[in-house]
Amino acid sequence: MKIAIVTASDRASCGDYEDTSGPAIADWLETVVTSPYRIIRRIVPDGIESVRDTLVELCDLEGAALVFTTGGTGPSPRDLTPEAMALTIEKELPGFGELLRFAGLQQTPTAILSRQTAGIRGRSLIVNLPGQPASITLSLQAIFAAIPKCLELIGAGGMTVSDRWGAEGHAAPRLPDYLRPPS
């Protein structure tokens, strides 16, 4: 199985900034995925065309079953990953974005500014993740139990994961304390 990681960052793509988010995803996958897989990495500038073209290449030409993007999901003018996704996917899976934002609220109230989403292109699942390594870990922990089943349902092949991350052993994120009603 091929798993692609796309970092959307103007600074990282031109070498002004070291990409730490892409390696954070790869490191996390190494601890969770137990079936054989190969990572394909790309670092592209922020922007609709660069992200869209890379996603199309990875899904259609490289045959990546799972594609993670990192970065470009905030509200700033150059954060255009969701716009690129909208032009790339055939089906949106809004539950991923909803859970990603909910999980992010455990870390920071500004998680509500995130525009993360997920969708399907052919037999590929594409998931937008945030650009900060700590947020990436939290995000993957929140959504990963659904990924193997989604890959199976879209015909992308099987993925086995450590018992802790299977759908049966996964605990959903809980409401952060600052959002809980007073007792």
Automatic annotation (TrEMBL):
Family annotation (CDD domains): MogA_MoaB
Highest classification ranks of the organism: Bacteria, Pseudomonadati, Pseudomonadota, Alphaproteobacteria, Rhodobacterales
Stored Pfam families: MoCF_biosynth
SMART domains, per database record: MoCF_biosynth
Keyword field contains Nucleotidyltransferase: yes
GO molecular function, one term: nucleotidyltransferase activity
Species the sequence originates in: Cereibacter ovatus
Keywords assigned by UniProt, alphabetized: Molybdenum cofactor biosynthesis, Nucleotidyltransferase, Transferase
Pathway: Cofactor biosynthesis; molybdopterin biosynthesis
Domain of life: Bacteria
MoaB/Mog domain boundaries: 4-150
GO biological process: Mo-molybdopterin cofactor biosynthetic process
The protein's name in its UniProt record: Molybdopterin adenylyltransferase
